[in-house]
Design brief:
Elements lengths: L14 H11 L2 H6 L7 H9 L5 E3 L8 H16 L8 E4 L16 H6 L3 H17 L4 E2 L23 H17 L3 E2 L8 E2 L3 E2 L7 H8 L1 H8 L5 E3 L4 E2 L2 E2 L4 H11 L5 E3 L4 H7 L7 H11 L13 H8 L5 H17 L10 H7 L3 H14 L1 E5 L10 E6 L22 H8 L3 E6 L22 E6 L10 E5 L3 E5 L12 E9 L5 E10 L2 E5 L2 E6 L6 E9 L5 E9 L4 E9 L3 H14 L2 E6 L18 H9 L5 E5 L16 E4 L7 H9 L55 E8 L3 E8 L5 E11 L10 E10 L4 E7 L18 E8 L5 E9 L3
Parallel strand pairs: 1-2, 2-3, 3-4, 7-10, 12-13, 12-24, 24-25, 25-26
Antiparallel strand pairs: 5-6, 8-9, 11-26, 14-15, 14-17, 16-23, 17-22, 18-21, 18-23, 19-20, 19-22, 27-28, 28-31, 29-30, 29-32, 32-33
Helix pairs in contact: 1-14, 4-15, 6-7, 6-15, 6-16, 7-9, 11-12, 12-13, 16-20, 17-20, 18-19
Length: about 850
């Protein structure tokens, strides 16, 4: 290299030397800039070209096609190269079950991937997601979610790998190792234990250190030690009275000193500001910023707030030492060097375009959806269905875009579940009836253009308060817009705008109509000069409805007001002629009577900020199941959701239940294959299904009770236990062998179909100085067997066999364990005893 080239730009030097050289050249302003993250050009562009800038959240660009997104990432890196020291920026994005940006492959949601019980396969899925991510120039993902979820009421169950520490650890390592090997920083989250009382997200949590280190901490340790994760995201909540974002014990003593983490910590979105604004841990923003950095928080996401002027003042006034500031900056720089950002920051947009949602990745998504299917119930072998005859299909979920779950992007063209059924079984006559809804306020079919006559007058303002003259006036044929992060037009900003549509609405037939409006953010709908529906607030896409009676062919005035307050933008106006409940139930019954079988597709309302007080199916779904069952024909329920539901009112009336989770973009094909027997379901539950919401939190690895396990009005047993999942074939367990470092069992496929079984090894320490759960998952294997095939399944005895002792250190004394091998936590087929002389 040129003699004038500074050492930190020499790729032949080791990373530590490069970090030290660069750090010595940086000013305080350049240091602080590395701790910042923002997507507002007014905030990041000038610093990026001068002092450098730490991070760029990609979410405003999610509407771009892959090639354009890659080009934009290259532009950011070119800006960074023009700064005084040429420090590259770290673009980051969400990739929970596929890169969230437009046009990328969407795999089954995380809980569905966990249901495969196949870490090696999940690693292949993660490699595909990492390939698409790396091709875009995105070098950090805010994934995976490795919170152990023990309460089905939590709205973010779908994002997790379930209730078990070992399963979550294995899945977490499978995911992060694929990304880290590809040079992409992973960010396991949320550190730590962010589900409070009642299953409520980010409520303050009070748990013992034993629970913390036995249940919630091991997945983070595994992702750091075995997966190589270079970043960790703190959670929103306080833990035992201290916000996790500003807890030096959590972030420094435990994370760095005990777990050996050498990467950087980022805040959950806005969690840094909570220290000052919500938890009131400091009386000034400056002191709050000092608390964060001194505790071990390295970067604020997503905007410059606490790490803006408050941090500058904290450093200036001595509340944060230069040594502490340098340590945080060094951690970020070290990772940027390690993943090659300084030496190879650019990508080929053409490669990004061909990699995104490629044919091999679509095929992998289909296989993932197949493996995730969990057959919960199948009385009298009702499933699989015959590919002939007539089948009634209920559930609005079946006739639209298949739900993908939280943190999902738009993968592009998809078929509906109904289309998947029709394609897979062309000789079956399918009768679909709409009106079985997850949400009584579900989006209705879009009002067609002809209902608005010559169109609607559309006025757009460059502010969200309708102030001044409109920036744009045009004619829109109807109201069906999903701008995502784009602006409606060049004259209108992508954030903080407002709009009004006016015109007339004409009904094709006389009757009472349901009108729905789905929007992100505020909306008001007036029909015939009366307020029909309103949701005037900032919110994610949600739907409100109203009813209005109209006469055929008679136009009535309509006015729709809308504002966008920041983030994504969308608005859609729908309608359908209302059907009274009696007629609706009668139509369901008649369709079910005329069919050989009925399939009801059901779901729930869930997601971030959407915790559930009740676990019943919402809307009118349970009434539809009951009406179909009244016909006396077989009813199959397919659950398209990311969390457990209770089934007290209808489970005894249906012979078969299939849990499809959020199956990803190829889910419709996988559901059809499974219902008709071309895919033999082999998934297992990664989370317990309770019988009643009053049992929550409910999980399999509970400790012995001093008295009993049930209730005066209900059992303590689950509806479906952890690890449960049926097959279209049967498996026999035999020949259990227990050795000093290994347990084995022979598994045999006794049926006439090939299939996969997940053999599960549970243990219980017979005598222990601390109380142990009645059973704990110690190992598992997913095994595929042809009809009549036998295989010896071997389980290695790992270090986690021993619990933490009274001093919270892992014991190493001689011990005897009950060994249980079976098909679920409640379906134990073989038992033995394992004695370990010393760990």
């Amino acid at each position: 290299m040129d003699a004038q080239t500074p050492p930190y730009k020499n790729p032949k030097l080791d990373v530590a030397a490069r970090v030290l050289d660069l750090l010595q050249r940086m000013t305080t302003s350049e240091n602080i800039a590395q701790l910042r993250s923002d997507s507002n050009p007014e905030v990041y562009e000038q610093p990026l070209k001068t002092t450098g800038f730490g991070f760029y959240p990609v979410y405003p660009l999610r509407g771009l096609k892959p090639e354009a997104l890659a080009q934009r990432m290259n532009e950011l890196q070119r800006m960074a190269q023009s700064s005084r020291l040429g420090i590259p920026i770290m673009p980051y994005e969400e990739a929970l079950h596929g890169l969230i940006d437009n046009g990328h492959t969407s795999f089954p949601q995380a809980i569905g991937l966990a249901a495969t019980w196949d870490p090696d396969f999940v690693h292949q899925v993660a490699k595909a997601i990492a390939e698409e991510t790396r091709a875009q120039g995105i070098r950090q993902v805010l994934s995976p979610v490795i919170n152990v979820c023990r309460d089905a009421r939590w709205g973010r169950v779908e994002e997790t790998y379930g209730e078990d520490t070992l399963l979550t650890s294995k899945m977490g390592v499978a995911f992060v190792s694929a990304f880290e090997k590809a040079g992409i920083v992973t960010t396991p989250k949320h550190y730590i234990a962010n589900v409070g009382d009642g299953g409520r997200d980010s409520y303050s949590v009070h748990i013992s250190e034993r629970q913390l280190f036995e249940i919630y901490m091991p997945p983070f340790l595994a992702c750091i030690r075995d997966g190589g994760s270079r970043s960790i995201m703190c959670s929103y909540n306080a833990l035992n009275g201290i916000p996790t974002a500003s807890d030096p014990w959590l972030l420094t003593d435990v994370l760095r000193k005990q777990l050996g983490f050498t990467g950087y910590v980022v805040s959950d979105w806005g969690a840094a500001g909570n220290v000052y604004g919500r938890f009131h841990q400091a009386d000034t923003e400056e002191k709050g910023a000092a608390l964060l950095l001194n505790a071990g928080m390295d970067a604020e996401h997503p905007g410059v707030y606490m790490f803006g002027k408050p941090l500058e003042d904290a450093v200036k006034n001595g509340l944060v030492s230069m040594k502490t500031l340098d340590e945080s900056v060094a951690r970020i720089l070290r990772v940027k060097f390690e993943i090659g950002l300084f030496d190879d920051a650019f990508v080929d947009p053409a490669v990004a375009a061909t990699t995104a949602n490629s044919q091999p990745h679509r095929e992998l998504a289909l296989e993932a959806a197949r493996r995730a299917m969990v057959l919960l119930k199948n009385e009298n072998d009702v499933l699989p269905l015959a590919k002939k005859g007539r089948i009634a299909v209920f559930g609005d979920l079946a006739n639209g875009t298949v739900p993908l779950g939280g943190y999902s992007g738009n993968p592009g063209s998809q078929i509906s579940i109904l289309e998947g059924l029709e394609r897979h079984a062309p000789n079956v006559e399918f009768d679909f009836l709409p009106g079985c809804s997850v949400n009584p306020n579900s989006p209705l079919p879009t009002i067609p253009a002809e209902a608005f006559g010559s169109g609607l007058k559309a006025e757009f303002w460059a502010n969200q308060n309708f102030e001044g003259a409109p920036a744009l006036t045009r004619t829109d044929r109807n109201i069906d817009f999903d701008w995502i992060d784009d602006a409606p037009a060049a004259e209108v900003p992508k954030d903080h705008f407002s709009a009004v549509w006016t015109g007339t609405l004409t009904a094709p037939e006389t009757g009472e109509y349901d009108i729905s409006v789905t929007s992100d953010d505020g909306v008001r709908v007036y029909v015939d000069d009366k307020l029909l529906a309103e949701n005037w607030s900032d919110h994610a896409a949600s739907t409100v409805t109203g009813k209005v009676t109209m006469k055929a062919g008679v136009p009535v005035p309509i006015r729709v007001e809308y504002y966008e307050g920041g983030g994504q933008a969308s608005i859609k106006l729908g309608w359908q002629i209302a059907t009274d409940e009696f007629t609706f139930q009668f139509n369901i019954l008649e369709a079910a009577k005329a069919a050989d079988a009925s399939v009801v597709f059901v779901g729930i309302r869930e997601g971030e900020g959407q915790d559930r007080a009740f676990l019943d199916l919402p809307g009118n779904q349970e009434r539809v199941i009951a009406a179909a069952a009244d016909a006396g024909k077989p009813v199959i329920v397919v659950l398209v959701a990311g969390a457990p539901v209770t089934m007290e009112k209808w489970i005894d009336r249906v012979p078969a239940i299939l849990d499809a989770w959020y199956p990803g973009q190829e889910g419709p094909a996988a559901i059809a294959e499974t219902l008709f027997g071309d895919n033999n379901p082999g998934g297992k539950l990664p989370i317990t299904f309770p019988k009643t919401v009053g049992q929550c939190p409910l999980y399999y690895n509970y400790e012995p009770s001093g008295r009993g396990y049930g209730y005066v009005d209900s059992t303590g047993d689950p509806l479906f236990p952890f690890g449960h999942g049926l097959s279209y074939t049967t498996f026999r367990y035999s020949e259990l062998k227990v050795g000093g470092s290994e347990v084995s069992v022979t598994l045999e496929n006794m049926g006439d179909r090939p299939g996969a079984e997940v053999a599960q090894l549970y243990v219980h320490q017979q005598i222990s100085p601390v109380v142990r759960p009645l059973k704990e998952l110690h190992a598992f294997q997913r095994v595929f067997l042809q009809p009549g095939e036998r295989k010896e399944v071997k389980f290695a005895i790992g270090e986690h066999l021993y619990p933490l002792g009274p001093d919270l250190r892992r014991t190493s004394t001689p011990a005897t364990f009950d060994v249980m091998v079976g098909s679920s936590s409640n379906d134990i087929r073989e038992r033995g005893v394992l004695t370990i002389p010393k760990a």
